[in-house]
């Protein structure tokens, strides 16, 4: 059991000069918000072809990663202001305890009055680099596995900052987000015996449809 430290919502905003939009810069709210099947009321994505949807309704990111990223930038002589508060990685939910090595695909959590289920990790893209104004950060996320993850919504309900996040069901397998992310995104599919794992992931019903499809393609 942990608690929802920060709840953040937002919508598409101008992202760069070519007209690209992004909803990564979300703002904290200090009131209850209804969580629907496709996400929090008032929260939107800029590109629904790759963001949002049932399997990416809620993006969560572990608080524990922030000191690590601060140290990462300090090693390059940078003090990055985005890391001064939650939301730097576009998350809706900022909380401790939801690290990728502990949380499994299919784990279920009660947050406020809503029931959610872990669907996949977050695959980083070039927008993280642009958001931070730092080249190579996307690669660092992939290398470290500090990706965060997505919940799908099983039962809609009201959620508020400070609500408890209680795990009510643990998946009956050992496919933690970290293991899945390494195999599908981090290059693990090139290792010996990876095909058997990929085939197992392709049949994991609680894994997001797009990532099951990725497992199939990697086997091929």
Automatic annotation (TrEMBL):
InterPro entries: Benzoxazolinone_Detox_Enz, MoCF_Sase_C, Pyrv_Knase-like_insert_dom_sf. Residues 27-168 form the MOSC domain. GO terms for molecular function: catalytic activity; molybdenum ion binding; pyridoxal phosphate binding. Pfam families: MOSC (PF03473). Coiled coil: none annotated. This is MOSC domain-containing protein.
């Amino acid at each position: 059991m942990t608690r929802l430290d920060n709840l953040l919502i937002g919508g598409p905003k101008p992202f760069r000069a070519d007209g690209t939009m992004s909803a990564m810069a979300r703002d904290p709210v200090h009131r209850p918000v209804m969580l629907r099947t496709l996400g929090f009321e008032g929260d939107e994505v800029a590109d629904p072809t790759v963001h949002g949807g049932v399997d990416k309704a809620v993006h969560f990111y572990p608080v524990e990663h922030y000191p690590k990223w601060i140290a990462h930038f300090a090693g390059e002589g940078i003090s990055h202001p985005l890391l001064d508060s939650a939301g730097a990685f576009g998350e809706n939910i900022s909380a401790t305890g939801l690290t990728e090595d502990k949380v499994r695909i299919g784990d279920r959590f009660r947050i406020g009055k809503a029931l959610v289920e872990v669907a996949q990790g977050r695959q980083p893209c070039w927008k993280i680099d642009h958001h931070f104004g730092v080249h190579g950060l996307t690669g660092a996320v992939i290398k470290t596995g500090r990706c965060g993850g997505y919940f799908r919504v099983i039962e809609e309900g009201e959620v508020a900052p400070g609500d408890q996040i209680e795990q009510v069901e643990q998946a009956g397998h050992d496919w933690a987000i970290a293991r899945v992310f390494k195999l599908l995104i981090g290059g693990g599919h090139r290792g010996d015996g990876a095909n058997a794992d990929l085939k197992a992931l392709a049949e994991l019903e609680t894994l997001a449809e797009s990532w099951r499809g990725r497992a199939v393609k990697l086997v091929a």
